[in-house]
Hints:
Layout lengths: L1 E5 L3 H13 L3 E5 L2 H8 L6 E5 L7 H10 L6 E5 L4 H9 L4 E4 L4 H15 L6 E4 L2 E4 L4 E4 L2 E4 L2 H12 L7 H9 L7 H17 L4 E6 L3 E6 L2
Helix pairs in contact: 2-3, 6-8
Amino acid sequence: MRLLVAEDDPRLLKSLVRIFEINNYTVDGVSDGDTAFDLAASDEYDGLVLDVMMPGTDGVTLLKKLREKGISTPALFLSARSETYQKIEGLDAGADDYLPKPFETGELLARVRAMLRRKDNYLPDVLRFHGLYLNRSTYEISCNGISAALSAREFQVMEMLMQQPGGIVSPEQIITHVWGWDTNVDTSVVWVHISNIRKKLEGISCPVLIRFVRGGGYVLEAEK
Length: 224
């Protein structure tokens, strides 16, 4: 498991990195919010441990920006601020947990383990692929700040493709997922929905395409 730890107190940062490394985590430690954001935005971490108050971008703002970009990496806030409204602010920003300072090492490790277990069941509100975003709350696709609304069935088709980028999704799989196993819908209806989605991708100037593989199905790919 790979963690990103952001803490502006150099002694505490060193201790946190050491604690996690001893417990078999791979750790990157940084001391300011701007660097933390750049690293976390790579979406290469299994978990984030963030101080709330940091130079540059503070932890709450950092996490809000990550969630807006569709980065769903679980996050734990560390803070000397322990008032209830401050905890609520952190959780509303997208954090999974909030641990006041000072804390016991055992509790820190237990909360990180719990956070990482929840990662396997986490269903992000936004899916992303090469600059394309699919918002599960609004049924919209967006790219470069331009959005387009999908119908309910277009959304279900697009969701399947974005959950398996680069993988082939057969027309039969789409029919079963969208209309049910006992439907009379045929593959021509799938083609119509795919065609509509392609037009909307073109309309938002997104460098992503849906390619048809003969004898297989549809694949979501980045344009070359």
